[in-house]
Amino acid sequence: MLRTVVAVLVALFAVQARAQMTGSATLLSDYRFRGASLSDDRPAAQLAFDYDWAASGLYAGGMMSSARLDSRHAVQALIYAGYAHRVRPDFSWETGLRYTRFSGHEAYAYAEAYAGFAFRQLVGRLYYAPSYFHAGYPAWYAELNDSHALSGKWYAFAHAGYLRRGGDVMEYHASRFRSDFRVGIGLDLAPYNVQLSWTTTRGASDAVFGYPSAAGTTRNAWVLSISYAW
Amino acid sequence: MRHTWVIATALCTLGLCVAIHAETQQPSQVLVMLRAAPPHLRAADDYAITYASSPDEAARKRIARELAHQYGLQLVDSWPMPALGVDCFVMRIVSGTSASDIAQALSHDTRVESAQPRQTFHTLAKDDPLYALQPTAKRWHIAELHALTTGKNVAIAEVDSGVDASQPDLDGQIAEQRNFVDDSGYRAELHGTEVAGIIVAREGNGVGIVGVAPQARLLALRACWQLADGSAASACDSFTLAKALQYALEKHVQIINLSLTGPNDRLLQRLLDAALAGHVTVVGAVDDTTADGGFPASYPGVLAVAGEHADVQRSDVWLAPAEDIPTTQPGARWNMVNGSSFAAAEVSGLVALLQELSPDLTLTQLHDALHARSALGFASMRPMTIDACAAVAQVSHRCTCDCGTTRASLGVPRR
């Protein structure tokens, strides 16, 4: 996997001559992915980079994050590439592919396609994974994100997501749906960004969706994060 | 009296000279536009930095610093222009190279979307207080028009120098004030306050004047600065004007009033294109000292307005009263003003009256309403004086002012 990541990084650096590159390093009190903790309710560190070829609308990027799966430490590698098109100054759409895998937990590797729109601060996306967390069944995820500038450098944000899996769920005696919500405030102290949010999930448990989270992780959490962008 | 005339003339001449000097000076800064990618998914989207307004801004700032270093420039300022999908960076020229040469070189750099010199503009007030009082409201029958429409809730962006919102005739009439000139506080100035009074001065308050559209929502966007105390002469530049236009677009105003002029400017042209594409009516004052009327009045789609006695040859120019206009000044003061700046302000107010009557009024319908036609129905080949009553009657389909006069203007036989 390391070779794949290095190859992708080399390729991106090779074509970055005319791209706009952004990087960020983030520390979080809990790594929540669609409401599920991928860090076993513990702190995590992330390193992300993004490339934009603004003239063409193409973009690509990746992230490495510490994780804790099945009660064991791991490193997540995530890469993505897509195309975005601005229709009007306040409206654009995008489509792309994203691929995720975890060191020492190759069985959880999966890919998903997505399409979405952005209208002013409102962002909506629909994701489709043929085999969500490599569990052998497809899953759809829809999300809406919004943010609102408050006074000075403060802002508020909110997220709502809805996950639906395919396949048989009889063995779990549970529904195939789950929703997650997140609300919070942020402080933009460029290049630093601090966020405090509260996240919760409703519906089926982590196990129904094949999440590699440890047993006993909570459904609700306060998450504090600080990121540095360059 | 003679003494006052001499002093006023001297002040006026001094003010205009300062403005003209500022405009003819070689630009010492360039504006460099870098493309901003449309919003899209990012690596940490679900986790930490989703909601930052523009996470890739740091990348463009880094490229701007690289460009400044490479071309021997000094990075001064920047401003996002989402209406054009770019960030605009201001760079000062520290070598002796001309701004146009550097802008041309930058334009060929693949990292750069476009580049241009930072140009200077000036307002079009003649600032002569010695003409006899002659209320212009009488010529447009403002009181009678207000029985039908007052421009209620129509948003007008006045891109100008600062407006005194505490002036008794403007108290409560200014929806928002923003300063795009510098980081200091908003400042009340002559030209901006004079133009604002003509558009929205409070009606029936027992003092001063009546604005053409007293119930319109005026956004007082300070993009110009007064050059000397006591003189309305003001200067602006490409960057301050672009910031104000960008803000007006963000606020979805219906009308933009530009009582100013200067050279053709690519960045401002693109912002005007965005405004016109969004069905915003842009009103520009004609500079009758230039053959084409000056920019932005000369730009296609802009309602170009000149004074009734101006010597203009273009047939697509509208004429409105521009002499002896009583209006507001900072503090509890009023004075008579002259210049196409104020004719443009009157037309902006009139457009607000029409847009209250017909919010979906297209630019073509607006032109038809304003454009007086000959008795045979042919469009005029000369600049024509606006008949406000006829325009309101055409849009409202109702009798207004003197019905006979209105019908005559519309080409309908008088009974």
UniProtKB/TrEMBL annotation, chain B:
Record-linked Gene3D superfamilies: Peptidase S8/S53 domain
Organism: Dyella acidisoli
Domain of life: Bacteria
Keywords attached to this entry: Hydrolase, Protease, Serine protease, Signal
Protein name (database record): Serine protease
Active-site residues (renumbered): D160, H191, S341
Position of the signal peptide: 1-22
Record-linked PROSITE patterns: SUBTILASE, SUBTILASE_HIS
Membership in a protein family: Belongs to the peptidase S8 family.
Record-level GO BP terms: proteolysis
GO molecular function: peptidase activity
Oxidoreductase in keyword set: no
Keyword Signal: yes
Peptidase S8/S53 domain mapped to chain residues: 151-370
